[in-house]
Amino acid sequence: MANTETAQPFMAAPTTHPALPAVPMLDLERQYAPIRDEIIAALAEVVDSRQFILGDFVSRFEQEACQHLGIRHAVGCASGTDALWLALAAVRIQDQAVITTPFSFFASVSSILRAGGKPMLCDIDPVSFNLDATQVKKVLGNAPEHSVAAILPVHLYGQCVAWENFTQLAKEFGLALVEDAAQAWGASRGDIKAGGLGDIAAFSFYPTKNLNAAGDAGTVTTNNPELAERTRMLRQHGMRERYHHDELGWNARMDGFQGAVLSVHLRYIEQRNALRREAAQRYHKLFANAGLAENRVYPEQGVVLPQEIGGGRHIWHQYVIRTARRDALRDFLTAQRVGSEIYYPVPLHRQKALEFLGYEDGAFPEAERAAREVLALPIFPEIRADEQERVVRAVAEFLS
């Protein structure tokens, strides 16, 4: 347990310590250095082939992605946001509602709007931070018949939602299930990996993701051949035949460079995910040994550690603690040259661009409280034990 003395407000600006070595949130130099020659060779192949858009390199990655995830179809595209839009457009949500979480990146909701749907938000589970199926069922019970087309759960921070609960809701209410798996390559629920749980799924390969491109890229995955074919059509301006446009699609194609880079990274993803899991377990032990971990849902004097919920495999895209004095702690860590980030400081229903959705402050108390308390600490496959020890010592110093 944490120190139970009453914490004093942290008022003074912390002193910066420039002599201390930095502990970054992510270090892409460490990731790329061992595989630099493989990456350069892959890029050279693309240049020599001149297959700059789609082509063999994208097709090869799509096939490898299917093998890795145990699914039938993967459709490479230009970004994770495009992947979300393509997935939602493929299941035809036009003029109907899609239920999702207010505690996610902006694209989870903006993609619904871009696909012609109406975002309908539900609160989160305070332990996993994922969409709460109990809250979703309440909303569905009050919604007019046929007004909701789909549910879009987000596998936040690298942990799948309790998918069996959403499968039951989808059957009961006749809904499509679309996975926002942007942060969860390699995560699983039972024996099924993210990307194969729902009707269709979207991944992001933004450079900070656990499976990452050298720029923007994404993919849509599905076991449904009709949805796969429709997704391919939509990613090329709605064309099945060149210059014949069946629908208003978009230019959402993956380029050959990203396909080639992703194929290289895919060779190492299982090893990297295993290292992330080791790093998460090390944090667990360090916080417990320091007496900082509080065994509760909400923090008081110490920190509440993230949990891996039963029945799933967390890949720890982020290691996110809860703490009552989050902003002050983050300032202190910055002064100590320890990286941190807030995912996410403003729930989606309180974003200025989404005010028109009509949700008031207090509409989703769990998401709003999480936005005040969560703090992501440095975690990446190459992080060293001594760096994690420094992170925990800094947190302990602040809380003391």
UniProtKB/TrEMBL annotation:
Give the Gene Ontology MF terms in alphabetical order. transaminase activity
Pfam families linked to this entry = DegT_DnrJ_EryC1 (PF01041)
Report keywords, A-Z.
Aminotransferase, Pyridoxal phosphate, Transferase
Entries under CDD domains matching the protein: AHBA_syn
So what family is this one in?
Belongs to the DegT/DnrJ/EryC1 family.
Give the protein's recorded name: DegT/DnrJ/EryC1/StrS family aminotransferase
Q: What is the lineage of its organism?
A: Bacteria, Pseudomonadati, Acidobacteriota, Terriglobia, Terriglobales
